[in-house]
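lol so apparently i was supposed to do this last week
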Amino acid sequence: MAYKVPRLADFSPAGLETAARELLGALEAEASSVGNETEWKIFRDRWMARKSGVLTLLNDLWLKAAPQESKREVGQCVNQLKARVEVGVEAALEKVHGGAGGSQLLAERVDITLPGIRRPSGAEHPVIKTLNEIVSVFRDLGYSVEEGPVVETDYYNFEALNFPPHHPARDMQDTLFIAGQAAKAQCDRLLLRTHTSPVQIRTMEKMKPPLRIVIPGKVHRNDPPDASHSPMFHQVEGLAVDTNITFADLKGTLDHAMKSLFGSSVKTHFRPSFFPFTEPSAEMMVTCFICGGSGRRGPDPCRPCKTTGWIEILGCGMVDPNVFEFVKDNGYDPKKVSGFAFGMGADRIAILKYGVDDIQLFFNGDVRFLEQWR
Ligand code: PHE
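anyway here it is w/ phenylalanine bound
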């Protein structure tokens, strides 16, 4: 039989207690028979509806009807019962929603009036920033960006770049090899690429000429770390292949790039050099953008350029016909196409640009150092 709020005759504490116990017993019994959301809504309305719900009737039949001298106690009792009913109704809903589910909802309730949590903003790493700046200078010239694997085969890192079998760069002294490769043919052995040049070959294998690409990426060499060396560093490679590309194109392109990177007053200078995959090859110098080429900073010698007024920035040259031979079948006939290539160390450029005196600072993850680029 459904509970019905009685008219109280006995307003004494004992009478109130009996009536309250009866009400709570009924609440519990009805709550336990609620099996689904529809039943719960009926249950809720029966107890809490503003019009003739149990709580409203409590107000009318107990509180309003109470004699003046009992009002205080009846009021307290009714308030407690209201609180118990509200909790009981909410608990019944939780039970319908699968026990823990309901309390999880409660636990995860968000107070949207609280202020938000401000997260510190990160910053682009100075080396990545430099890589991106170099790349964007060439992108403006119509170059596209290519990337390749850091774990590379001997074939792409050396053989297809015209390194003779016993070239010193292949020596353990310079190259970090992946262990356990001895059973493989030399060309298939894995190593950590020592430069970004293997991506020249990888790209020419998949794209026909004409080609204009830049290749940013990580490279490794077996150098012990010190202020100017790191076993891991970054390069940006460039390659342009077309009919009638000449050394003048190489010089014009790189001179323009250096002026965009370091300022229009910078001058470039090319000095003969050697790389197995370019012929002729050159090292390119730029006037020291620290001392402006004077070799001095006031009364002091300029350290970055060792007082020479020039800083060596990259290696470059005309693509060796022997390299084209490896990708001849994809349209790179050395008799028909020519090209130039260059490669520069991005970390070194970042060091010079930002006046950092130790390359290790870039890689040991000290937030106090990195925060300066925020
Ligand atoms: N790969 C060369 C190096 O790491 C740089 C280079 C790239 C030179 C392209 C010529 C042409 O030193």
